[in-house]
Every structure is written in C-alpha cells, then in structure tokens.
Amino acid sequence: MQYVIVGNGVAAIGAIEGIRRRDRENPITVISAEPYLAYGRPLIANFLRGALSKDLLLLREESFYEKNNVKLLLGRKAVRLDEDKRELSLENGDSVPFDKLLVATGGKPFVPPIVGLGDNYHTFTTLKDARGLEEMSRTVKVALVIGGGLIGLKAAESLHDRGLRIHVVELADRILSASFDEVAGRIIYNRLNQVGIGLHLKNTVEEVISGREWIIGARLKSGEMVECQGVVVAIGVVPDLELLKDSGITCNRGVVVDDFLETNIEGVYSAGDVAETKDMLLGEKRVTPIWPNAYSQGLLAGQNMAGAQKSYEGSIAMNSIAFYGIPTISMGITNPPADGPYRIRSVVNEERSVYRKLVFQDEYLKGAVLVGKIERAGLLTGFIKKHIAVREYEDALMKDELTLTDFPKNVRQEILYSD
Amino acid sequence: MLYQPISKSYTDFRIHRDLDKCIQCKVCVRQCTYGAHVYDQSSDLVREDNTKCVGCHRCEALCPTEAITIRRSPMEFRENHLWRPWFIKNIYKQADTGGVLLTGMGNPQAYRIFWDHIVLDASQVTNPSIDPLREPMELKTYLGSLPDSVKVDTKNGKPKLTSKFTPQLEIEYPILFSAMSYGSINLNIHRGLARAATECGILYNTGEGGLHKELYPYGKNTIVQVASGRFGVHADYLNAGAAVEIKIGQGAKPGIGGHLPGEKIGPDVSATRMIPIGSDAISPAPHHDIYSIEDLRQLIYALKEATRYEKPVFVKIAAVHNSAAIASGMVRAGADVIVLDGFRGGTGAAPTMIRDNVGIPIEVALAAVDDRLRQEGIRNQASVIVAGGTRCSADVVKAVALGADACYIGSAALISVGCTMCQRCYTGRCPWGIATNDPYIAKRINPDIAAERLANLVKAWGHEIQEILGGMGLNALESLRGNREKLRGVGLNEVELNILGIKAAGA
Amino acid sequence: MKRISCKEEVCIGCHLCEIACVTEHSRSKDVVKAYKEESPRPTPRNMVEEEGALSFSVACRHCDEPSCVEACIAGAMVKDYETGVVKHQPEKCVGCWSCVMACPRGAVKIDPSKTRVIKCDLCPDREVPACVAACPNRALICEEK
Hints:
The complex is a heterotrimer. Chain A is an alpha/beta fold.
C-alpha cells in the first residue's frame, strides 16, 4: 500500500498523523515543491519581521518524517496526475505510483494584470517570498502593498517593522473585508495609521511606473501618485490546481470532495487550501483557506485513506491576528446581509479599541468579531461548533469576561466535559 | 479600636498573621464566614478585624503557608475568681443588646467530669486477657424491649425459642449517631451520617427536622424523631425508619423548646419540615398533647399503631434531677428504648444560661436510672441509650459498664468532620460547612469525605473497645453491660461513689 | 490517559488549586518563595470561575482531538500520543492566540507577558497533579479516561 501526498503544508502533516493513527506500517511519500521541511506558513511574517529564526518555523521536530516512516521528496514538483495508471509525473521526469493519494497543493497567489507590473513584484505566501522581501527591504525605501487582506497587512506590518515606509491599497471600503465588518475595520485602520502605515481604501493600482532600472512609483485609480520602489501583490490566494489540469479529477473553484474528503476518483483525496469542502455554517461547498481547517481536513483525509469512514463536519472560517498591540479574533459569519435571518448584537468603544460583535440565527450563535479583548474566545467557537442553543444567554455571551457561571449546568457540562 | 460598643472592645481571639509567610492569596478572606479577614483593595493587603474572630480556626487550617495563628486574646482583666472575664463580657453584651445570650454545642463549664474519675479493670494472672486479633470479640448490640423470661422448647434435641419478641434493632457497635436536625445542620452532613451508619451497621437519628426525600433509601439505618414541633411528621416518614423516637427533652436545654431562625429555612428545609419558607421553626417546650405520663403512653401506642408495631419506639429525655422516676414511668408507658441526654449534650442553638446551668451529668443519671429500673425489676423492658459528651471509646466502655446499652454521639461525630467547638452554630455561618444552610458554605462538607470520616471514627472506637474488652478478659460486650464491678472511682467522695454504684480504687 | 475534572457540587471556591499550580510551576516549588521572591510570579494554568455559591475550576482536558493543536501555526502545541498529554512548548510559541480562539473550553490563557499562552501540562514531574492534591474538599479528580 503506497500512500502519496502532494504538498508539504499543514494539511500534509495532518494527513501523515491521520494515516499513522491507523496504519503504522505502509510507507508514505510526500512530494514537496518547496525545499523545506513543513513549516508554519503564517510564521513567514514573524520571520520577515526578524522576530523568529528559521529553525523555529518548523511545524514538527526534524525527526518527524523519519519517525513516521515518511519518504520526503523535497524540491520536487508534481506536474501531472494519471488516475488510470495511478501515478504522478514529476518535473524532473520521475514517476511516483500511488494506491492512495492526497492532493494538498494549497493555494497560489492571484496576480491580476496590472499595467507596468510585468514580473517586477513580490508575493508573500512562501518562505522564499519572505526571503525575497527581506532582500528587497535592504534596498527599497517605500513599498506598495496591493491588497488589504490578511496577507497584505501582515506583509505591510513586517516591512514597516524593518524600517520601510508602506502604502496599502485596498479595493473594498475597509481592510480585512472578508473577515471584518466596518467597525472592526475602522479600529484597525486607525491603529495602522497611527503607526504610520498609509492606507488607501476604495482604490486600486492603475499603473506601475518604472524608471530605467527599477520601479519609481504607482498611479492609483483615485489619481494619486504613490512613490515606491517595490510592489507586493497580496490580493488573494486561489487553489493551486495546476497538477490536475489534464486529469479526470472534478474541480470547481477547488478540488471537489465528498463528506469523506474523497474526490470523484476512488482513493484520491484532497485537503487544505486547495480543497472545496462543506462549510459547517452555510452548508454549501466552498474553499475555506484557514489554517485549523487545513490541519483537521488533512487529519481526517489521512484516517480515511487508511481505511476509516469519518465524515467531515465542515469548515468554519476563523482568524486570530493582532496589529500593533490590538488582538483581533473573527469566526463564522461576521458580515451577514441586513435583510437576512441573522440577528446582531454589538458593543464598541473605539477610544479603547475594544469591539465585540456577535451574530445569531434563531437559537444559535453563528459568528463573532472581537477586537481588543479576546480572552476565552474559544468558548464562542465551542458554542458555534457544538450548535448549543444560546437564545436565553445572549447577554452573558456579550460580556467581555465571558464566564461559564452564567450558563445552566447542562450547558456547562457539555462545554467542559463532552469530548 | 475607636468608638466601638464596649462589648466589641474586648475580643476573645487574636488573629496573628506572619507577614514573612503571608502571600496575600486571600484564601482566609474567602473562607472566613464572619468577616474577620478583609482584603483592602487599595493597598493590596489582607487585614484582620479581631472583633469578628470566633476562634473557629478555619483560616488557619486552609492557609497554604501556615501564616495564620489564632490565639486567645492576651487582653486580661485583673484576676478575679468570681468575676471571670466571661461573666464580665457577657454583661457588656447584654447591656448593649438587651437580649438573651445564645450559644451552640455542649456545656463547656468546669463541672466534674465523672468519666475522668472512673477507671477500668484489666486482667492480670487470673481470668486471662483475650487477644482481639485472634479471638472473635462481640460488640453486637440489640436495642428493644425484652420479655421477663425466655421460653425455650426442645425439638429434635435442638433448642427452639418460642417467646414472642417485640421489634429489636441490631447494631454492630454500641454507638449510634445522635439526633441533629436537618435545618440546624445541612443535607451534606445528613448524607454523610446516613452512609456512614449504613456502612458501619449502626443507626443515625434524623433529629426534629424531618427526613429529606433523598435519604429514604437509608431507612433501615435511620431513627426518625417526633419532637414537640412535629416537623415533617407524616405516615410515610414514620414508616421510613427502623425506629421512632419521641423527643421530650434535650440535654443541652432541658425544659425549653427549640428555635430555628427563618433565615435557615430555605426551600428544601421548608419542604422537609412542612413549614413555609422563611418562617421561624419554633418547637414548643412541651408536646402540647403530652401533659401526663398517660398522654405519653397514648402517643407511644399511637406511633406503634401507625407503624404496625414493626418498629421500636424510643423516648428521649434530658437528664434532670428525678430522671430515675421519670424513666420508670416511661418504661411502664411502653417505651422500648429510653434515651438519656446529659447536660453536656450539644445543640445548634440554646440560651447560654440554660445550656450551662440546667440538667445533670449523664454518668450519674445513667447510674441512677439503671439502678432504679433494676430495683423495680423492669430493666429488661427497655434498652437504655445515653448521650451527652461521649468523647472517646473509653467513655463508651465506662457507660456500658455503668449500665448503658449504647451511646449516641453527636459532638464527636461533628468534630470528626471538622468542628472545632467554637460554639457559634446559632449564627448559621459555620465556616466548616456543618451548622449552616447557606449553599456557598454548605458545600464545604463533601458527603463522600464526611461518610468516610464518620465511619472511620466508629470503626476506630470499635477496635479500641475490643482491645479494652480483651484486656479485661471479656469477649462480648454483653458481659460488661451493667457490670459495675469492672469500674473503680478515683478522687470521688463517698456520696458520688454510692450514686455511681462503684467502689473506690483500691477497695 | 489522565484527565482532571472538577465536581462543582463540592468545589468551595477557595482557589487553593490555583496556588498549588503556581507553586508547582515556580522555580523553587516553595509556595512562599514563589509568591514573594520569584519574579515574574508564575500564572496559574487553571482558573476558578465563581458566582455566588457556584464555583468550579477549568483547565485543559488534553482532548483526544485537540483543537489547539489544529490551530497552532508554530507547531508549539503538540499531542503526545504515548502519554496523552497535549504539550505547549513556550519557546516555539509566537503569541498568535489561535489556540485561545480554538479551545472550546476557553482553557488556554494569555500569559501576562502577552507574548505567549499558558495552559495545564498535567504536572509532568508529579504522580498526582498539584491542583488535585491541594484541593481540600476532593472536588478535583484525576482519573484514567
């Protein structure tokens, strides 16, 4: 039985741990396009900022692969999947046969066509990208970051901490438009401004202008000219489906999988940022590129590859990210449409940079945005995931110092002791 | 110490906090139920208010660094054997409040303790000792009325008992848990008592607060009490237990009734006692349907009818001057078991003057009652149980030798679960979680731990009694019962020796 | 696999479990020194919640499927499948608070230094966890589950 995993991110780690729970014998091969042992991708920001050394980026100890009987092919790109012959073709010509396969190729940055951009830009999704930005920061004084989402803001923060002047350009009317609402967006916007990062909302880059040798600036849609010598494209990430182009695997936005994370081809599974899985709260299938989901999908797919029949409960969006001393957490449905079935309760103190917003539907909690005070946020995750009826306890949930004493014993027992 | 009423100026106890060891953890602040430890937010320090300290030692026990010592206050009045500080402080208090002095637990005054003047025999040379580890040692005790004679027939060469017996209780040790009402103590202690009694094969007494629904399954090991307030008395209650006890009086407060303040009557106590929540539970001094010995007989038989003559009926009186005559009357009225409660008996609340000055010591009451019943030839018609200040297994052995069938333990039982005899039970704020119904404080008694400790106590005393019996060359407690020859008095005068019916040591 | 649970019916809200946790995780393991001499004073990894007569302590349950391990971006939270303990490695922690967000019991605390998290480690140097041993009313139970 040959297990093969394409990709070496957190979904792959989860898959290895999942397979090994049931099958300690049969060999696993991991094909990694990047030349590194699995590392914590979000940590590239800490690395770029200079806060973390390279060896601390590793997700597991160095002996992890050996201990788990995993053959690791580093720096090898898989370019073609033949599901009939059940083998993968690598860029260097090698073939890797498989009995069970996990496609965990993750996402790749989406780069829109921008006049004057050419190849003269950086992205920020890999360690290699971080190294590139490290180098760029040595010669560049002002950098432009296109995209005010998670990746863009982290790039901005890291480069700012390295001494660069930063401008961020964002299409929406707020930063972090996917996970934040207006209020939360405004609080962080103010903080970033305070620190000295320039933010241009409701704006895009029309043209990148270069001098003879390097970039000298960019013209925004608003007409403004921003002086800069480097550009970081951080608009978003799309599933990397390159490998499956000519195969018979059904793909939509991402790789389509069933409740067991198996594709339309028997024995071929998918997990992580590349997969299109059931969303726990909305019911429909979508790509949810969120770190904990990637791991748990990998873990589940791995177990199923080794013979289990576990059904995936569904993904849930959740992000924990702090900006210059202001922690924020968002989860679930954070921006419901005004005319929908959702009820919202919120409390804000902009001076103190504290915001708490909860989104309810009928009896249940469906989403939350917390800024400034995030203690015990996990309790909210518990209420959402375990579908606990909380209609009577909305006041209790709105407290910053959320405490289980406000709930009846049966709810408490479920939160604390059901596993 | 400025501008206090004078009764507060002279504190009984001083809290000494060793600042080198105090880690300001505030465990003492949380555990003290009287507010003697206070956390001062602004200076982040724990401070003391000695006027509130009752000397219960709860803080000392739970302090994680042994930083607290509770001492008697060193404030001393000039020596005066008549006007001891206690009397002086009591007058201050009464001048302030105009009220009756209240207290809890048993009489602490320095009256003669006869147990401490009685010594036991042991075998030497003649009538050799018995080793309880090698020979069976019988502590089993039967409680109930016995007929005047026993008829035995022989059938097929084997003896067969043909006498009819009234209901008997069989207990494994000559020890029972005394009556402590649900309301004066809380359900957690009752759970502990019920479970320990079951485990040890003895009985516990519900006291006058009725029997909580949850404890009906322990009925085989329960004595249900019918007191003057008739709290919680209904047909199911009477039939739930193994015996029924009519409480005429209590050693701690002979002649008066009981009073449980409304603050201690929550929903459970209300349901069990069958009275409204928050209303004071007052037990009148007499049973208002017992004004003569004939009335007592009527009640005894009414209870026997209600329980189909299946359960022995106990009658409990406080030990007072003419206990012997009263006991004789009770036996003739049909009581299966007489309970004598001496003046050292505990209570949840009693007026101090009555607790300290009314009633007689159980030792002499027991001796007098046992003598009188024997003289009248009716000793077999009722068992005698004594209560009131049994402190150790030696006291039990002496009581049995004086004539008791068994001993009720109350204070000893509570001490085994933490009581430090601070005598503040009537406040309802017992910090050990015993004499309180406040749900926050009552949790401090874990029924699992209580049951274990109570059972440990009874078993430990049981082992000691076996050792003492063995040392006397006896292998059954029955051989010691009323066997005053095994006792001698030390430091007692002739009159006392006569009343106790024992010889002086050396004689 | 040892797990600690708290019986709220007999928890008396004394907080001795927190003091025991601080002491066990201090350098000196002596309660007076830990509180008076060591700086920074360790934070207890458990927390007592109380309201009126209700009190109980909450700590990591070392779940079979730990959400914190799923969420950790630095590999600082790992499950040791031999002992069952979910271990937090502070030297790898970057203070991203993802585990605070993920733990459904709210058992992961933010360290007062605000640079990393802190949670129960099941007292690896002890036979019986310190909090369980310190509880005066047997409210904390450590059982094999």
